[in-house]
Design brief:
The complex is a heterodimer. Chain A is mostly helical. Chain A contains 7 helices and 2 strands; from the N terminus they run H-H-H-H-H-H-H-E-E. The termini of chain A are far apart. Chain B is built from 1 helix and no strands. Classes of the chains: A mainly alpha, B mainly alpha. Chains A and B meet through helix 2, helix 3 and helix 7 of A and helix 1 of B.
Chain lengths: 253, 45
């Protein structure tokens, strides 16, 4: 077994243990919120997934910038892997939010600035993932994806600021911008950061797994190109004069 | 505990999404590896 493989097995083990510890803390250590009670505990996985998605989309933008500078496909692969994994975490946010909202607000969804901007963010990265399937040329696809990944990141700070700039139905911030007198209980805060750490670790495992797929695809694409080139080569080596006959173009067969 | 079922549903959904994602990666990886192996054999690599 290679040292790299051992390292990733260790990371996977840490992620599993960390997630288990976070699960225990959410259900048995975090105090019960006085008005919402049990349902408030969705907050830990909802907020952690949202922050993890933010980190993922930041990596997409960084990957895009590095690809445009260095033209190394590995940066594009890393960006794509981060985008797909971030998209998955945004899906978690969009699903867990309404599960919390129904018993608290009485409705599953409302077009509040935070909810709407998160949905737009999800759509933007869905478009990023579709973009790769629309362009056949490898380099053009990577350039397009990189530019779009940088542009799409603009929406991430916007989503973060929506509950600070506009008053909607979504709860106000409890960290970084909390109103005086509000905020998070210290135990709740510790559980939140423990859960975020576990989610980031899980993100690293998933992203690495997705990156490995892109490496295999890259190698496959290279060999397929080689196969296509070698299939075309004998035809192009044929004498050009044979293509024209007295009756017109005979073609190259 | 009030709304405990919703809380449980949220955590089950989280794990379901993560496992489905991991499953799709594994399936796509197996398909890509099979294609790569075929091409490698073609080129004698």
């Amino acid at each position: 077994m290679s040292p790299n493989r051992i390292l990733w097995l260790v990371v996977k083990l840490i992620a599993a243990l960390w997630m288990a510890a976070a699960g225990y803390a959410i259900f048995f250590v975090a105090p019960d919120e006085s008005t919402m009670h049990a349902i408030q505990r969705i907050f830990y996985i909802h907020v952690s997934s949202a922050w993890t998605a933010g980190v993922a989309f930041f990596l997409v933008a960084v990957g895009g910038v590095l690809y445009l500078i260095k033209r190394d496909p590995r940066y594009d692969w890393a960006g794509l892997s981060a985008a797909e994994t971030g998209f998955v975490f945004t899906t978690v946010v969009l699903v867990t939010g309404p599960i919390w909202a129904k018993p608290i607000w009485g409705i599953w969804w409302t077009w509040d600035p935070r909810l709407t901007s998160t949905f737009v963010l999800w759509l933007m990265y869905a478009a990023y993932l579709l973009l790769g399937t629309l362009v056949d040329d490898k380099q053009r696809r990577s350039v397009l994806r990189s530019v779009y990944g940088i542009f799409a990141f603009i929406n991430v700070p916007l989503v973060f600021m929506t509950i600070r700039w506009w008053r909607g139905q979504h709860p106000s911030p409890v960290i970084a911008g909390a109103q005086p007198g509000s905020g998070l209980d210290p135990t709740m805060k510790a559980v939140l950061f423990l859960t975020w750490g576990a989610t980031l670790c899980l993100f690293a495992v998933l992203m690495r797994s997705r990156y490995r797929l892109e490496v295999i695809r890259g190698e496959t694409e290279e060999l397929r190109q080689l196969a296509e080139d070698s299939a075309v080569a004998p035809a192009s080596n044929r004498p050009f004069v044979s293509a024209v006959t007295p009756t017109g173009f005979a073609g190259r067969g | 505990m009030k709304n405990f079922n919703s809380l449980l549903a949220a955590y089950m959904v989280f794990w379901a999404i993560v496992f489905i994602f991991q499953f799709t990666i594994a399936r796509r990886q197996a398909r890509a590896e099979a294609e790569l192996e075929k091409l490698r054999q073609q080129f004698g690599k």
